[in-house]
Design a protein that fits this description.
Layout lengths: L2 E9 L4 H6 L10 E5 L18 E9 L4 H10 L7 H4 L3 H6 L10 H5 L2 E4 L2 E8 L1 H6 L9 H16 L2 E5 L5 H15 L3 H4 L12 E3 L5 E2 L2 E2 L3 E6 L27 H27 L8 H4 L4 E8 L15 E6 L5 E6 L6 E4 L5 E3 L7 E5 L1 H6 L9 E4 L6 E8 L6 E2 L3 H6 L9 E2 H9 L6
Parallel strand pairs: 1-2, 5-6
Antiparallel strand pairs: 1-3, 4-5, 6-16, 7-10, 8-9, 10-11, 11-18, 12-17, 13-16, 13-18, 14-15, 14-17, 19-20
Protein name: Fe2OG dioxygenase domain-containing protein
InterPro entries: DIOX_N (IPR026992), IPNS-like_FE2OG_OXY (IPR044861), IPNS-like_sf (IPR027443), Iron_ascorbate_oxido_reductase (IPR050231), Oxoglu/Fe-dep_dioxygenase_dom (IPR005123)
Organism: Ambrosia artemisiifolia
């Protein structure tokens, strides 16, 4: 009886390009049975990626003519070895993989393709945006096939999820980690030290807030934070920004905190501008459509956040279920989330109304769309609800950078987006500064 050789791969990370070659350079994805740790099993097309490249390949025999369903059932009964969560975190996984690695080298288009799936549900696309970052200021950027591929996937991510991950963004991993590390050091300080830069309305809502001061929809959030904004002078924008007038209250301990964060802010602002150029291309509007009167002089917000572990402080007076931050959308154009790699707390509500965990992926930012971009696109792109659930006993930090429009920008749907949505204006015009001030001035319990 003729036999065929099949491959069963236990994958922590894998891409389409990796699997098309298999172990012998010939097998395609239709010959593969894929098991991932907390990630979706896809029949026929493998497009998921976590962040490591490790696999172990087993050879199985199958009778000719056996259907996919028959093979699938047999594999589950015999021979398919699944890596468990415990094994993933232990040395046992290294024994299982035997040091076998799939190729890391991929084309930009292949690297851009993976879907990020959590709990079997599509969360977002993990985009390798290096081609876009390199060429977004080139008027002929879309003639580059790699840029065009990134733009296509970016459009899909913004339409289908409102959230996406970016890698290949150009901000050094060492700096991203250093920002988190220094944030941990600040929150490790005694309360008496942290409160020296306490936030109040007299400080322009800038500075440190203790756990429970921030409120989402009337419920105290279980986090502490430093809030920073682009600095405003009194009378700017005809007084529109007066509630936020002031200078940012940076801690002096750790002593290089301000310098590091200001360096980080410059890089995040430039990266966000480049991503917004990609979004403009995705919408079919001029590449600089989000500059000029919309965001040629962008406002920004930086929230440096610490989430106590689930059992590290008393629950008295705090929200149930360890809600680090209640469900909300962001206010501006785009958010870059820099979160601890080893703790999952951020959750996103998908289009079906299900809450899905945004698994941290080292070297990436989680990006999400804000309210102003939703208005500009007339709802083509959604500002997705998200929340933070503290489900780890360990303290977690997150540094969220918010790229906004001009403070006094009047935001209404772009003409191109109106035409794409039938010509009817679905969302009301908003003045960004008014929108922000109305949110900030009602966010606190003092």
């Amino acid at each position: 009886m003729a036999m065929i050789v099949e491959y069963v791969v236990v994958v922590v990370v894998v891409s389409v390009a990796d699997l098309h070659t298999g172990n012998n350079g010939q097998r395609g994805t239709e010959d593969l049975c894929i098991h991932r740790i907390g990630w979706q099993e896809t029949e026929g097309v493998i497009s998921s990626e976590v962040y490591e490249v490790e696999a172990v390949v087993y050879q199985l025999s199958a009778k000719n003519g056996e259907t996919w369903d028959e093979r699938k059932q047999r594999r589950r009964k015999d021979g398919c070895k699944v890596v468990t969560g415990d094994e993933r975190l232990s040395g046992r996984r290294r024994e299982m993989t035997g040091g076998t690695n799939l190729p890391e080298r991929r084309t930009p288009a292949e690297a851009a393709a993976p879907e990020v799936v959590s709990g079997g549900k599509l969360l977002a696309v993990n985009l390798y945006i290096s081609p876009l970052v390199a060429k977004c200021d080139d008027p002929n950027a879309m003639e580059d096939k790699d840029v065009a591929e990134v733009v296509t996937l970016l459009d899909r991510a913004c339409r289908d999820a409102g959230f996406f991950y970016v890698k290949g963004h150009g901000i050094p991993d060492s700096l991203i980690k250093e920002v988190r590390d220094i944030t941990h050091k600040f929150f490790d300080l005694p309360y008496e030290e942290k409160v020296k830069i306490e936030l109040s309305n007299e400080t322009g809502y800038r500075g440190y807030q203790r756990v429970g001061v921030n409120i989402t929809k009337g419920v105290p959030d279980r986090h502490e934070a430093i809030d920073c904004y682009r600095e405003l002078n009194k009378g700017m924008y005809a007084g529109l920004g007066d509630p936020l007038v002031g200078t940012n209250k940076w801690p002096t301990d750790p002593n290089n905190f301000k310098k590091l964060m200001e360096e980080y802010l410059v890089l995040c602002t430039e990266l966000s501008r480049k991503i917004m150029r990609g979004i403009a291309l995705a919408l079919g509007v001029p590449v600089d459509a989000f500059e000029g009167k919309i965001a040629g002089d962008p406002f920004w917000v930086l929230r440096i956040i610490g989430y106590p572990g689930a059992t590290s402080i008393s629950d008295e007076g705090l929200p149930k279920n360890d809600v680090g931050c209640g469900a909300h959308t962001d206010y501006g154009l785009l958010t870059l989330v820099n979160q601890d790699d080893d703790k999952t707390a951020l959750q996103v509500r998908n289009l079906s109304g299900e809450w899905i965990s945004a698994v941290p992926i080292p070297g990436t930012f989680v990006c999400n769309i804000g309210d102003m971009l939703k208005i500009l696109t007339n709802g083509i792109y959604e500002s997705t609800l998200h929340r933070v659930i503290n489900n780890s006993p360990k303290f977690r930090v997150c540094v969220a950078y918010f790229y906004e429009t001009n403070f006094d920008a009047v935001i209404s749907p772009l003409d191109t987006c109106l035409k794409k949505t039938g010509g009817n204006k679905k969302l009301e015009t908003a003045v960004y500064g008014e929108h922000l001030v109305s949110k900030v001035t009602t966010n606190f319990s003092y």
